[in-house]
TrEMBL record:
This is ArsR family transcriptional regulator. InterPro entries: ArsR-like_HTH, WH-like_DNA-bd_sf, WH_DNA-bd_sf. Pfam families: HTH_20. It comes from the Bacteria. Gene3D superfamilies: Winged helix-like DNA-binding domain superfamily/Winged helix DNA-binding domain. It comes from Paractinoplanes durhamensis.
Amino acid sequence: MRDLLYLERVEQAETLLKPQRIEVLRQLAEPRSCTEVAARLDQTQQRVYYHVKRLTEHGLVTQVAERRVRGINEGVYQAAARAYWLSPRLVGRIGLPQRRDEASLGYLLDLAEEVQSDVAVLHDYARAGEPDLPSLGVSGAIRVRPEQRPEFMADLKSALQDLFTKYGGADGDAFKLAVACYPHREEREEGEG
């Protein structure tokens, strides 16, 4: 089972985005037959098999074994991945690209799409046996008073610019650096209550 399956074909997304199929897929986190899934979901075996067949046709589920039960061969299936990401390219960009201020949420959304796409490609390289794909993910929360926000943003930009200047030469392996800074959702929810 893969860690991630990046869905870039409309047919895959259409197949996946049906509530009953998502429930079937969740049951297939562990290898199971359609009979076992049907019992767990209180559905008919035929209905579950129909969904499993569609999921299998589009590479979202794989048959991992077959066993003989009461004289009949029964397939055992498993989800193809632990997580499924839908590519933003499934819809594509609507309208012309806009020039955005790097402090806008629109810019952050564009950046998140780009990072998601890049990570999916790197994940496929890693699965193909590409040696040593170094990466770093850092996440944390900080607190900045409203009157300090401009100074904080300037400091952050300066620190990053120092890194770009120090390591921005033409020699060595190329790395992409993306930094996102946005209000923490839980903080906003607490303040709204």
